[in-house]
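A common beginner's mistake is to predict each chain separately and then try to dock the pieces by hand. The better habit, illustrated here, is to supply every component at once so that their relative placement is modeled jointly.
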Amino acid sequence: MKLNKLKRQYIPFMRAGLQTMIAYRMNFLGFVIGGLVYCFVMYYLWKAVFTSSGGATFMGFSMTDMVIYLFLSNVTGQLTFSSASNDIGEEIKDGSISMRLIKPVNTDLSYLATELGCSLMKLIVFALPVIVGLEVYRFCVFGMVEFQPINFLLYLLSILFAYLISFRVNLCFGFVAFYVKNLWGIGILKNSIINFLSGALIPLAFMPEWLKMILEYMPFASMSYTPVMIYMGKYDVNEMIFRLIMQLVWVMITYALSRIIWIGAVKKLSVQGG
Amino acid sequence: MRRALKIYRILTIQNLKRLMEYKADFLTGAVSFLIDQAIGIAFIFIIFSQIPQLAGFSFEQIVFIYGFSQIPKGLDHLLTDNLWCVGYFIVRKGDFDKYLTRPINPLFHVIAETFQVDAIGELVVGVGLICYSAPNAGLCITPLSMTLFVLSVPFCTLIYTAIKISTSALAFRIKSSGYIIQMVYGMNEFAKYPTTIYSNVIRLFVTYVIPFALTGYYPVLYLITGEDPLFNIGGVVIISVLFFALSLMVWNQGLKAYESAGS
Amino acid sequence: MIYAENLRKEFTKIVKEPGLKGSFKALFHPHKEIVVAADNISFHVPKGEVLGFIGPNGAGKSTVIKMLTGILTPTRGQCWINGKIPQNDRKNYVREIGVVFGQRTQLWWDLPLLETYSVLKEIYEVSDKKYRERMSFLNEVLELDDFIHSPVRTLSLGQRMRADIAASMLHSPKVLFLDEPTIGLDVVVKDNIRRAIMKINQEEHTTVILTTHDISDIELLCDRIVMIDKGKNVYDGSLRKLKQNYGQMRELSFETDTSEHLTPEKFYKGLNLSGEDLTVKNDKNIFNVRFNSEAIPVGDMLNYTLSITKVKDISVKDADIEEIIRRLYKEGADEIE
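With all components supplied together, the output reads:
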């Protein structure tokens, strides 16, 4: 009964997300191509690195691993992308955030549903083709099918967690708009920090041991590194379970954190009268 | 020309005044771009902790290329940032009307209106990296090479500007071209590293089609080897001017198709 | 001064069917449609006239204004203003015009108002002496002094509109285009703006073209109106003439304890009018009288009603412009000319 109501209330938001994706398909294409360009630059850079180092592996990664890692990180980044920080930020800036408070639906959930709609679309039209491409590439290199259905399914689960964390972290960033107006600058800052700390730029395995230790336990690793590692089969069963549980813990912590900030924000709103 | 300079100066002073109103924003912007850059460099450091050279270039040389590539990028960012807004929303929302009701060139007006100090992040990193790496990069420094090298900077910047003008002008026809600017501009990633690491097709592409390689690698290559100034510097000058002329044509054509917004 | 000749503007629009299915369809087979925003618009405005340009939402008013100001290029037809074709000689042409779009601002949002003027001074190459003269004139007319040092973002809508009009007048344009200059303003501020426009027109003989939805704007300011609907010119002439033909109907609405005794027949008899000039609608304790104000003045109608019943509240409705246009369009544009 409750589920039914939930479905009725939030499915429209999800559908709106899907439609937004279609309406802004060219924008999306721009980001996809931008991301792929970046992957190719990195691909050639790594190729040069492998050539220069002369070895078949570089810090435990083969060139094939590297290719999978690069593209999969990009796909993961696209799927877990959340524009919540921008949207919330803009709403804070122009004051329309008060409109959010008067709607009879849970504001976070409506956002979430819309973005999940977007992500679903990205999964179908972008992520799956890239993954198929990567598997074909692996097949060509090794001469056999390397695809692990279990890992793929766990990857999807892990991505869902990653998205939830990303959504909450982004929400927290969005509240910065209460204090600074330069959302564009904040966006750049946020992206580059997340890119670095989540291992999307450089695999965490390449970092100095102490830094790696810290980063692996931070929420950012859960946003990209963990799902990619799971897909690549770099974790054994125990570690995999451990990482998934850690993701879940971060989902809860970031949820609590964003709620606390939100409650503070509502107070601040009523003080500003806005 | 003198009038244009005067208007530019006045608009820029207005911008700086605005900056003073929002000091926190300026700091956020500049620091953001600074950190963004720093993270890019951390990457190079990590790689070079494992290998002595990359595609025949030493660590210092790679850093020098990387650093130099940020200077034209930063200059263009400093001067023409408003073109992003043209592509993303000025045209779509019909706000371009304003520029058309003023007795100065709309392109000049729209560019002059923004002086984006966020770019200081890129410029500081660029200059910093150049200073850091230059002593050990094995550069071939002569009065001539230095002159030509420095001379290439405005032309490298012009390549960025030309690419942004032509892609933002597409908005006149398709309402919003932000994603196209994003797509094409994003290719400046290629400029950060020696083009020799790329495949032939990509090398030709980033030299002649979207010529970002000219904004970093080639001028530095000339400074490192002292060879082939005709292409490494002359090519930059010719191609950038060509691209700029082309972008003005695209812009003027686009302007005719401008449909404003609303009824 | 201003000649518009057969102006026509077409836009291409992509039509999307509603729903998810429609989105997919539009993705693969975008259905394009040509929309004619303005068609065959011709008129002439002599120097010093204030022309009201009216029509319902989406009629094409702004499109025509944008063609006249050189922002849009007509698909067909041409316009001359001060002997110039806006599209051909844009840079020189715009020196002679001032433009205000009520829904947008050309002021620098974050800076004190005065800064905007000092920038515009350079852009329009106004000399220092002339600038001082202009500022004192505009100050006097638009009363900018109270807020000239405040950042634009802190101005009220009315102040912003005054500031915007001043910005468009700084270079002493010969023609002033005002696109909905009173939109969203309260009555007092509207009145303020109107007086300013009137003064500018009288003292400088500036030709003014303004679009509006507010009939009072037209009544107080305009010598003549051009009305368009669905992109077509439907009326060109004085407001008085238009009202004589179409705008003389008034509506009074009374609130009473009981209105059962107020039958239409009673009114017809009592006032000696026929159904053509008078309709009465009776709804419990509210009743409406629509009448031709030429057949019976509003005052007489009021007196009569008050004499036959006890009235708790009265409201007067003017025949609004939308109503006039609706009727005008229904009856065809030809009859009136």
